[in-house]
Amino acid sequence: MPTLNAPGAIVVGGGHNGLVCAAYLAKAGIRPLVVEARHQVGGCAGTESACGVRVNICNCDHGMVRTMPIFDELDLGSFGLRYVDLEPGAAILGWDAPGALPLFHDPEQAIEAAERLFPGEGANYRRFLHDATGPAELLIEMAGANPTAPSLLRRAIGRRTPAALTLLAWSRRSVGDVLRSYFTDEGILGPAMAAGPAVWGLGPDTPGTGLGALSLAFKHVVGVGRPIGGSGALTDAIAAAIEHHGGEVRTSTPVRSILCEGERIRGVEVTGPDGETETIEAPLVVIACDPREAIVRYLADAPASASDFVARWADHEPQEGYEAKIDARLTELPRWRYATDNPLYDDLGFTDRLSPTTMVAPSLAEIDRGHRLMERGEILERPMFYVNMPSVLDDTLAPAGSHVFSLEVLFTPYRFTGGWESRTEPERWLHVAAELFEPGFLDSVAEWRAVTPAHYEREYHLPKGHATSFSGGPLDAILGRQKELTRYATPIDGLFLTGAATFPGAGVWGASGRNAAHTILATG
């Protein structure tokens, strides 16, 4: 397809935030060109074929993105996007717990489940939700707010509401400290940690991680769903919206250089599918891939006025990856051991126990030990798992007689001492996971693949295998630290940032893409 004649903007990277930003620009009449290095859009929110089924590149349940008005504002339903809702939205299971706790969207139903499964914890869960629900709602409100310092400060500090004060107080504590102030049973404590800062690669007693406890509250504030056809159905719909409004999306088109001229941006130089080099000029360039990689490696002829900006990013040491994943095709659905001959789960209304993601984790002390092992290049004997089987509710993902099994594994070090060339360690995870199910699980695994930090680096263009997420946290956003990550503009005229590294970049959210587009449009 020929490139747009003089696009109004170039978006570097076709992950979900880059696509969201481009779609809003396109709808506003600024014709964007999205250039993506891989053969398909979506980034870590995409879906691809493997093992004879369709698998999500990352284990992506959609919650936060559905708190944004993106679906309606971009009319994504008209481009084929449909969701199936999960109820409960997730479940948490301690390795040594007698059973899993379903996280029903209805708080009262969740509290009842907590009390019946973990006697005494129902009242604790109620107290936690009383304190955590307001901050969770406020954080969602902040994420969709006009991304300016006065706006965020006014919302989070100026009103001095209990929710704002709790948010600020928790942001200074560790997640372990926050969770221990409410719960006592490790069957809740460990998995609640796994749902929060563990996915940031941090230990439970790391200062400043306290807002990770809100991950548990989000399950009751935000409904969880999955796009029919996999997570990538979202990004495919956004790409279709871009093209509908006159924009263009080009895959298999890696960027060679981001070009400057004088004090402003000039465009990009790309490599086409046939290896040809092409220079594309535009008055706006939006970096929607890893910002350090783009600024340090690709930015050419940056003006002297931006030298401090470039030097700061050059000194920024990229984080190493710490997550891996197994995708498998099953010939038979497994059965959880914890639910065998236990009518309590049916009585609670937890009848579909395979579709929701189950977060499996040891105690907080073991998670802390796992964090220390990871820093030495080793992996916990019983790691933290995210387990789900998305084809139970979505039969478009697997052929008849087969099912998709997804096993995400946390604290798997980039510099694994055993070397990621071997399949020995990933295969061990399947055997460990088999302990969670009735006999026969391993016999049902017809085909599987492992996606390790090394694979994420090599195949998905993630430096050191790390899927970047905004690391500053809400407090940094409120105070405007790392300004280009929280306000999306850079010192170079016409150059903007969006994506996972910018606020609020964690998970499938889309808020930073929308915020970046609004910032660009506000500059005129």
Structure described in brief:
This protein is α/β, with parallel strands linked by helices and 524 residues long. Helix content is 35%, strand content 18%. The protein has 19 helices and 20 strands.
What can you see in these coordinates?
Helices cover 35% and strands 18% of the residues. Helix 3 (107-117) runs antiparallel to helix 4. The strands form 5 sheets. It has a 7-stranded mixed sheet with strand order 7-6-16-17-18-15-19. Strands 9-2-1-13-20 form a 5-stranded parallel sheet, covered by helices on one side. The protein has a 4-stranded mixed sheet with strand order 12-11-10-14. The chain starts with 8 loop residues before the first strand and ends with a helix. The protein has 19 helices and 20 strands. With 524 residues, it is an alpha/beta fold. It has helices spanning 16-27, 70-73, 107-117, 121-143, 149-158, 162-171, 175-180, 186-194, 214-221, 232-244, 291-298, 307-314, 344-348, 364-375, 424-434, 453-460, 473-479, 483-487, 511-522, and strands at 9-12, 32-35, 47-50, 53-56, 83-85, 90-94, 101-102, 225-227, 248-250, 255-261, 264-271, 277-281, 285-287, 299-300, 323-330, 357-361, 385-388, 403-410, 445-451, 495-497.
Topology record:
Elements: E1 9-12, H1 16-27, E2 32-35, E3 47-50, E4 53-56, H2 70-73, E5 83-85, E6 90-94, E7 101-102, H3 107-117, H4 121-143, H5 149-158, H6 162-171, H7 175-180, H8 186-194, H9 214-221, E8 225-227, H10 232-244, E9 248-250, E10 255-261, E11 264-271, E12 277-281, E13 285-287, H11 291-298, E14 299-300, H12 307-314, E15 323-330, H13 344-348, E16 357-361, H14 364-375, E17 385-388, E18 403-410, H15 424-434, E19 445-451, H16 453-460, H17 473-479, H18 483-487, E20 495-497, H19 511-522
Parallel strand pairs: 1-2, 1-13, 2-9, 6-16, 10-14, 13-20
Antiparallel strand pairs: 3-4, 5-8, 6-7, 10-11, 11-12, 15-18, 15-19, 16-17, 17-18
Helix pairs in contact: 1-10, 1-19, 3-4, 4-6, 4-9, 11-12
